[in-house]
Amino acid sequence: MKAVLAGALVLVAGCGGLKTYPEDAAPRNLTVRTVTSGVRAELDIHSVDSQCRAPYVGTVRLDKASVAVGIPADGWSYLKFDFASSSFLRGSHRMTKETLLRTRAGHTYEAEVTYKDDIYNVVIREKPPRGARREVPLLDLASCSK
Fold it and tell me: Which CATH number is correct for 18-145, 3.30.420, 2.60.40, 2.10.260, 2.60.120?
Protein backbone atom coordinates (compact mmCIF):
# COMPACT_ATOMS: atom_id res chain seq x y z
CA MET A 1 0.00 0.00 0.00
CA LYS A 2 2.82 2.43 0.87
CA ALA A 3 4.53 1.73 -2.46
CA VAL A 4 1.30 2.46 -4.37
CA LEU A 5 0.80 5.72 -2.46
CA ALA A 6 4.42 6.77 -3.05
CA GLY A 7 4.07 6.00 -6.77
CA ALA A 8 0.87 8.00 -7.00
CA LEU A 9 2.51 10.99 -5.31
CA VAL A 10 5.41 10.90 -7.78
CA LEU A 11 2.97 10.72 -10.69
CA VAL A 12 0.90 13.64 -9.40
CA ALA A 13 4.02 15.73 -8.74
CA GLY A 14 5.22 15.11 -12.29
CA CYS A 15 1.88 16.16 -13.80
CA GLY A 16 1.32 19.29 -11.75
CA GLY A 17 0.70 21.41 -14.81
CA LEU A 18 3.58 23.73 -14.04
CA LYS A 19 4.83 25.25 -17.28
CA THR A 20 8.25 26.81 -16.85
CA TYR A 21 8.38 30.42 -18.04
CA PRO A 22 10.69 30.66 -21.08
CA GLU A 23 14.12 32.06 -20.20
CA ASP A 24 14.38 33.79 -23.57
CA ALA A 25 10.96 35.51 -23.44
CA ALA A 26 12.60 38.95 -23.31
CA PRO A 27 15.73 40.64 -21.98
CA ARG A 28 15.85 40.20 -18.20
CA ASN A 29 14.30 43.39 -16.90
CA LEU A 30 12.61 42.12 -13.71
CA THR A 31 14.56 41.04 -10.65
CA VAL A 32 12.52 39.25 -8.00
CA ARG A 33 14.02 39.26 -4.52
CA THR A 34 12.39 36.69 -2.28
CA VAL A 35 12.56 36.43 1.51
CA THR A 36 10.28 33.71 2.83
CA SER A 37 10.42 31.18 5.60
CA GLY A 38 8.24 28.10 5.68
CA VAL A 39 6.39 28.86 2.44
CA ARG A 40 6.95 28.10 -1.22
CA ALA A 41 6.71 31.03 -3.60
CA GLU A 42 6.13 31.07 -7.35
CA LEU A 43 5.45 33.71 -9.95
CA ASP A 44 2.88 32.96 -12.65
CA ILE A 45 3.30 35.23 -15.67
CA HIS A 46 0.47 36.04 -18.07
CA SER A 47 0.62 38.10 -21.24
CA VAL A 48 -2.19 40.64 -21.68
CA ASP A 49 -3.76 41.29 -25.07
CA SER A 50 -5.66 44.33 -26.38
CA GLN A 51 -8.97 42.89 -25.08
CA CYS A 52 -7.45 42.56 -21.58
CA ARG A 53 -7.39 38.78 -21.75
CA ALA A 54 -4.49 37.30 -19.80
CA PRO A 55 -3.37 33.92 -21.13
CA TYR A 56 -0.92 32.04 -18.94
CA VAL A 57 2.66 31.97 -20.27
CA GLY A 58 4.56 30.16 -17.55
CA THR A 59 5.77 29.95 -13.96
CA VAL A 60 9.01 30.95 -12.28
CA ARG A 61 9.88 29.24 -9.01
CA LEU A 62 11.03 31.77 -6.44
CA ASP A 63 13.28 29.32 -4.63
CA LYS A 64 16.40 31.54 -4.66
CA ALA A 65 17.10 34.86 -2.97
CA SER A 66 17.11 36.59 -6.36
CA VAL A 67 15.75 35.56 -9.75
CA ALA A 68 16.02 37.57 -13.00
CA VAL A 69 13.14 37.31 -15.47
CA GLY A 70 12.51 38.82 -18.90
CA ILE A 71 9.09 40.47 -19.21
CA PRO A 72 8.23 41.86 -22.68
CA ALA A 73 8.61 45.66 -22.70
CA ASP A 74 6.08 48.26 -23.82
CA GLY A 75 3.00 46.33 -22.85
CA TRP A 76 0.94 44.85 -20.07
CA SER A 77 1.77 41.67 -18.17
CA TYR A 78 -0.25 40.10 -15.40
CA LEU A 79 1.85 38.77 -12.53
CA LYS A 80 0.51 36.38 -9.92
CA PHE A 81 2.72 35.77 -6.87
CA ASP A 82 1.64 32.53 -5.24
CA PHE A 83 2.59 31.56 -1.68
CA ALA A 84 1.86 28.03 -0.44
CA SER A 85 2.53 26.26 2.83
CA SER A 86 1.43 23.10 4.52
CA SER A 87 1.90 21.56 7.90
CA PHE A 88 0.45 18.64 9.75
CA LEU A 89 -1.31 20.82 12.34
CA ARG A 90 -2.42 23.75 10.15
CA GLY A 91 -3.08 21.93 6.89
CA SER A 92 -2.51 23.59 3.53
CA HIS A 93 -2.68 27.32 3.03
CA ARG A 94 -2.40 29.34 -0.18
CA MET A 95 -2.21 33.11 -0.65
CA THR A 96 -1.79 35.11 -3.85
CA LYS A 97 -0.91 38.68 -4.69
CA GLU A 98 -1.72 39.67 -8.25
CA THR A 99 -0.92 42.75 -10.28
CA LEU A 100 -1.09 44.18 -13.73
CA LEU A 101 2.27 45.65 -14.75
CA ARG A 102 2.99 47.91 -17.72
CA THR A 103 6.65 47.60 -18.59
CA ARG A 104 8.58 50.19 -20.56
CA ALA A 105 11.61 49.73 -22.79
CA GLY A 106 14.87 50.72 -21.12
CA HIS A 107 13.37 50.50 -17.62
CA THR A 108 14.16 47.80 -15.08
CA TYR A 109 11.86 46.45 -12.40
CA GLU A 110 12.40 45.02 -8.95
CA ALA A 111 9.89 42.98 -7.00
CA GLU A 112 10.34 42.35 -3.29
CA VAL A 113 8.40 39.25 -2.29
CA THR A 114 8.26 38.62 1.44
CA TYR A 115 6.56 36.42 3.98
CA LYS A 116 7.09 36.99 7.67
CA ASP A 117 4.86 36.28 10.66
CA ASP A 118 1.88 35.32 8.48
CA ILE A 119 2.14 38.55 6.48
CA TYR A 120 2.58 38.27 2.71
CA ASN A 121 3.81 41.29 0.80
CA VAL A 122 4.81 42.23 -2.74
CA VAL A 123 6.34 45.60 -3.62
CA ILE A 124 7.32 46.45 -7.19
CA ARG A 125 9.60 49.31 -8.15
CA GLU A 126 10.45 50.75 -11.57
CA LYS A 127 13.85 52.23 -12.40
CA PRO A 128 14.20 54.40 -15.50
CA PRO A 129 17.54 54.52 -17.37
CA ARG A 130 18.31 57.73 -15.49
CA GLY A 131 16.66 58.85 -12.31
CA ALA A 132 15.25 57.46 -9.11
CA ARG A 133 13.27 54.29 -8.56
CA ARG A 134 9.55 54.64 -7.94
CA GLU A 135 7.10 52.23 -6.39
CA VAL A 136 4.53 50.86 -8.83
CA PRO A 137 1.01 50.39 -7.42
CA LEU A 138 -0.47 46.90 -7.55
CA LEU A 139 -3.36 46.95 -10.05
CA ASP A 140 -6.11 44.45 -10.73
CA LEU A 141 -6.70 43.07 -14.21
CA ALA A 142 -9.72 45.36 -14.76
CA SER A 143 -7.30 48.32 -14.79
CA CYS A 144 -6.14 47.15 -18.23
CA SER A 145 -9.16 48.69 -19.94
CA LYS A 146 -8.72 52.09 -18.33
Answer: 2.60.40
